[in-house]
């Protein structure tokens, strides 16, 4: 910010697959234009199904901007819902998936952070002051490990939304969070419905079943009448779940660690 006081920055996850580069670029350009008016802008994904794996954004009134015809105010951010609530969100047409993409003036991000996380803000500014100086390495080695680990959603976006400082640009581009097995299945199937994606050395007998099967054992796996199933078969453990609950595997991993079963991870 010392060099570019009015700089607008973007934050994007590294584990997302975007299949329509032009649509994505158009959304980012619109988001940058809205951010220049003094807003934190997120790109919201139009949901294709009720998912319990993502947080949701409730879109509000359309913004009166000639250069941003799709942008809307953000009413609120919603944590990952249960399946019934997710169905209501999708049916209402007012909610978008929160993909964790943010475009905003750096000055506004720091302003909100100073209000919500003053200690974190102070340490960030200490790092910024040391950048490019002789003390840079020493300050980073001392301060960086002490920074509070908190997502921008919680530290900045959600509090800012309550102040009317957040906007959303709805997106229709193909988007996958490849952090779970459901996304892998979707990518492997090319978006086809009723498709069983098979990865690994496995013998499969599938009768009216779809989803994804990943195996490292080479043994026979039979599936009968299962929709959106996820099976991961390894020599020392077997995982069976559904696409709708794929992101809950992360909770299972945490549970295995705390109960002393890290050997199967």
From TrEMBL:
Start and end residues of each Nucleotidyl transferase domain: 8-188
Q: Which N-terminal residues, if any, form the signal peptide?
A: none
- Spans through the membrane: none
Q: Which GO terms describe its molecular function?
A: mannose-1-phosphate guanylyltransferase (GTP) activity
Query: Which residues does the UniProt record annotate as the domain MannoseP isomerase/GMP-like beta-helix?
Result: 209-256
**Which GO BP terms apply?**
GDP-mannose biosynthetic process
Q: Which InterPro entries match?
A: ManC/GMP-like_b-helix, Mannose-6P_isomerase_type2, NTP_transferase_dom, Nucleotide-diphossugar_trans
Question: Which named protein is this?
Answer: Unannotated protein
Q: Which organism is it from?
A: freshwater metagenome
| Lineage per the UniProt record | unclassified sequences, metagenomes, ecological metagenomes
């Amino acid at each position: 910010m010392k060099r570019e006081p009015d700089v607008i920055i973007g934050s994007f996850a590294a584990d997302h697959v975007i299949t329509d580069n032009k649509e994505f670029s158009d959304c980012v350009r619109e988001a940058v234009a809205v951010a220049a008016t003094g807003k934190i802008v997120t790109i919201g994904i139009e949901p294709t199904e009720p998912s319990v794996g993502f947080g949701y954004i409730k879109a509000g009134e359309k913004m009166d901007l000639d250069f941003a015809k799709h942008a809307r105010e953000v009413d609120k951010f919603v944590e990952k819902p249960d399946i019934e609530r997710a169905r209501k969100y999708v049916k209402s047409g007012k909610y978008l998936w929160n993909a964790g993409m943010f475009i905003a003036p750096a000055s506004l991000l720091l302003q909100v952070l100073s209000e919500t996380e003053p200690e974190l803000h102070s340490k960030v500014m200490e790092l910024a002051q040391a950048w490019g100086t002789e003390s840079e390495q020493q300050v980073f080695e001392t301060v960086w490990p002490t920074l509070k680990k908190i997502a921008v959603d919680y530290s900045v976006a959600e509090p800012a939304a309550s102040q009317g400082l957040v906007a959303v640009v709805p997106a229709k581009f193909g988007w996958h969070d490849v952090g779970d097995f459901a996304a892998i299945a979707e990518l492997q199937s090319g978006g086809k419905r009723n498709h069983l994606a098979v990865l690994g050395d496995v013998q499969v007998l599938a009768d009216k079943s779809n989803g994804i099967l990943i195996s490292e054992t080479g043994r026979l796996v039979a599936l009968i009448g299962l929709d959106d199933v996820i099976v991961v078969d390894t020599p020392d453990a077997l995982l069976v779940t559904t696409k709708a609950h794929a992101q809950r595997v992360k909770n299972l991993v945490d549970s295995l660690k705390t109960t002393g079963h890290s050997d199967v991870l």
